[in-house]
Give the backbone structure.
Amino acid sequence: MAGQVTAGSVGEPGTRRLDGTRLVYVAAERSAGGVGAYSEVFADILRRRVADFHEVRHPRPGTDTVTELRARRREIIELVDAANGRPVVVHGEFSGGSVESFWPTAGLERKRPNVLVSATVHDPPGLVWWPGRVAFLGQRKLLNHAVHFPLRPLSRAIERQVVGNRTLFAMSDAGARSLLRAYPDTTVRHAHMPVWSRGEVVSAPDRPKAVGLFGLVYRGKGFEHVERLRSLLPDDIVIRIAGRGTESLPAIDGVEILGGIHDADLPAYFSSIRALVVPYGARSPYGEAFPGSSVVTDAIAHLTPVVCTGHGALGELRTEGGVHVVDDDVRTADETVGELAAAAAELVGSRERLSAMAESLRAMREVREPDEVVETYLDTWARSVCRA
């Protein structure tokens, strides 16, 4: 039903109900950042569940020329036409600045009645935010903003025109609501960001007395607050930082900087901290966004309590017990960091709270188990095919 947010539900197994349907998955390649890493594992599950499954991969956002976008569109059309009239679902991963999956899938369903197009939106409410960011603008940051910032209403109008009445998936309730406000003709489904555990971890209370900051270094991730966080935490609590780009952060006493780590190293990293601090803040002048946090997802996967701001969609995690949320909407940045430090210090020193939050995280992980999340997608696609 267009114009409605619905929660994920599990009906008749989508695997059987998608028999005879071709699924074309359009997504970033593994090396293209967080969305690429997510799509690689998501595709592995789909490959096991859908017999007629095809992938169309693209490089990181802002690298495609118009010619390359057209070539990818032709590749998708060839896969659609090769189905010989059978139902085809084309599903894309849409994220900020990534026209690589946005334009090649535009209008497919309007020319071919056997095609259904859907997308997971990683940075709602914008689908791609910068619909003109081909390689020329991707290489010219200031020019890209000079084009897109004053034309924000036009960008949203373009997104609305392209998406039409498709089904969109969001990874949070806040993100789902923001999509429906921006694209009232769509059907929006809430499907959690899947949680993939990479291995066993030490029980949170038995880990070293340390907190962690984790993730890719860029504006809004809170790495600029490390020095103040260090000054506010007790001296016996170590800060361990890991993630791509962290190796360039300045050296500070009491802060261990590990740099980028591989997925296989995540259990060891999370076993070395009792809690993860997530000091996210506003990072874009384009307006509020509600992205799913892969960093928090990794913490949930490895049963690591989280202390975070309420930025974006993080605030809604407070009801599930494994995350302590510090509201940041009425505080200065310094005040927010002070609250985060106080909450982290209190948590790290309490075996009881660490144990209770770890149990809540175990429940959160079960709800977000990949096969359960993917079933929401399969069920949605199967129902859409039946209606068509």
